[in-house]
Amino acid sequence: MRRRSSLVLLALAVFFAALSPLLRWYAFPRLARIPAGQYQSVVLEAKNATLLDYGSMTAKKVSKVSIVQTLKGNVEEAKKVDRATGRSVVVWDGLAYIVGPDGKMVSELPERYIFDAHSQDPVHYAGESVDGDPVTRQGIEYKFPFLTEKRDYLYFDAQTRTSAPIHYKGTQNFRGLEVYYFEQTIPWTRVALPKKLPVAGVTPATVEAMGMQRWYTTKRMFWVDPTTGAPVNGEEIHQEEMRYTDGKTPPVTAFAGDVKMREDYIQHTVALVKSQRQLVLLMTTYLPWGFLFLGAALLSLSLLLEARGRRRRPPASAQTYDPEPVPVG
Fold first, then answer.
1. pLDDT tens-place string over residues 108-118
2. Nearest 10 degrees: CA dihedral of 113, 256, 154, 36?
């Protein structure tokens, strides 16, 4: 009976020891994925900012500029790309909608971002775009990979339509979470004007006909939960100028401000990430290590039972037998 029990325990030990790496390296990449239909929004604000009045082409100080950033999962498009590429992808239709203190639109920047549902690597397919212009992204955008590492990543900038390194700058504590702080600086670069401008009749073509070009620079900062890869806070020190091509007329500030996440969205994001990170830790840490320790404990118990069974079993040479009766006849 003891030997049978030890064999059962040995089999369970092997099972749990094998399940540990399978859960971490096989199941986790297939289960931890961004939902194809996910919808999220965030509001950022730049207080005491400078904003261009396109009617008079002069810069004015304003109390606040708001940026409403929405990301909407396009399920039908994701299915189409899945079938074409054989990969599980997410298609985000994004929109950065910028409004002034009066609530009127300043500009908007639509995007279509296609990426791998687990790794966040970009997937190149028809429709990938920024403001209607086709792009080929390199690197990540909006979200960092699951189990973010302490290293630099390539991050896509929608204004310049290019990618540049975003640098890991250290580990910090943010609202009770240990986060990785990343920073990226985009130097002054000539960028396209938004195709939709706030003044009727004013288009990118008419602005360029006036001998003006749009230039942009930003310092981008993210505080990222390394488990989920989700930024729990973001900030940009953002500057835009309209520069004259004659090289003589001074440039006009189109927008300048310190753009920060609104407090209520920070609180909501932190609470959401704290709950979601437990699911990721369950698949990457708690269960794999738990199964490994359980397998080791079962193996030890199996060996202990086998050793006790051997000690209690008498050796063959020490066994005694009753003599059979000898017939007398």
1. 999 999 999 99
2. -20
| Contacting residues for 160 by C-beta, under 8 A, at least 6 apart | 186, 189, 191, 216
Tokens at residue 300, please? 């030890």
Angle at 245 between CA 243 and CA 247, to 5 degrees: 85
Both tokens assigned to 142: 């909006």
pLDDT digits (tens, 9 = 90+) for 192-205: 999 988 877 778 88
Helix, strand, coil % (nearest 5) of the chain?
30, 40, 30
Amino acid at 173: N
Reference 80, options 125, 40, 111; nearest CA is 125
Alpha helices in the chain (DSSP H): 2-22, 28-31, 75-85, 204-209, 263-281, 287-312
**DSSP labels, 108-153:** EEEEEEEEETTT--B---TT-EETTEE----SB-SSPPSS--SS-E
Beta bridge partners of 47: 64
What would the pLDDT profile of 148-170 be if each residue is shown by its tens digit? 999 999 999 999 999 999 999 99
Angle at alpha carbon of residue 197, lines to 192 and 202, rounded to 5°: 95
Is residue 278 exposed (0-12), middle (13-18) or buried (19+ Cβ within 10 Å)? exposed
Please provide the size of the chain in residues: 329
Provide the token pair at 34: 């961004």
pLDDT at 264 over 80: yes
